[in-house]
Specification:
Layout lengths: L6 E3 L2 E7 L5 E6 L2 E5 L24 E2 L2 E5 L5 E4 L2 E5 L5 E6 L2 E7 L5 E8 L6 E6 L8
Antiparallel strand pairs: 1-2, 2-3, 3-4, 5-6, 6-7, 7-8, 8-9, 9-10, 10-11, 11-12
């Protein structure tokens, strides 16, 4: 089983920790408080104080982060981010501060484009990545 450990992002590194069973038990980094995750004996995620059970598959929040979901269960708000999805359940746009990122897909549902824009600076892309597929290989 592979575990996600340090992740380097533009806003700093994030470190994840796991227990012997492979459950995520913590997250820490420059942009985060140290968050702890607790589970009951059946492996169900408890709230971050380890007291109450999360009764749906929609985690309402963790630490200072609060999450919002649409009627299909897709994440729509997270801290200062807004996420938009299309009818196929594909992420199409993320708004975060002064940045807006758009995602494009081909007819087979594979992501083929990611373009990031300054929100109030017009429609000139700050960066753009085009993905090329050969069959099912990226």
């Amino acid at each position: 089983m592979a575990f996600l450990t340090p992740v380097r992002r533009l806003r700093g590194s994030v470190v994840y920790s796991y227990d012997r069973s492979g459950y995520l038990t913590g997250r820490s980094g420059q942009m985060y408080d140290h968050d702890r995750y607790y589970y009951d004996k059946a492996g169900n995620l408890l709230d971050n104080e380890g007291q109450g059970a999360v009764m749906s598959n929609r985690l309402p929040g963790c630490g200072r982060d609060r999450y919002g979901y649409n009627e299909w269960g897709e994440l729509t708000t997270r801290r200062d981010q807004q996420l938009e999805w299309n009818a196929q359940g594909q992420l199409t746009r993320v708004i975060s501060g002064n940045t807006e990122t758009h995602y494009g897909y081909d007819a087979l549902g594979r992501r083929i484009r990611k373009a990031t824009y300054g929100r109030h600076t017009g429609h000139t892309a700050r960066s753009r990545t085009d993905f090329v597929w050969e069959g099912f290989r990226l």
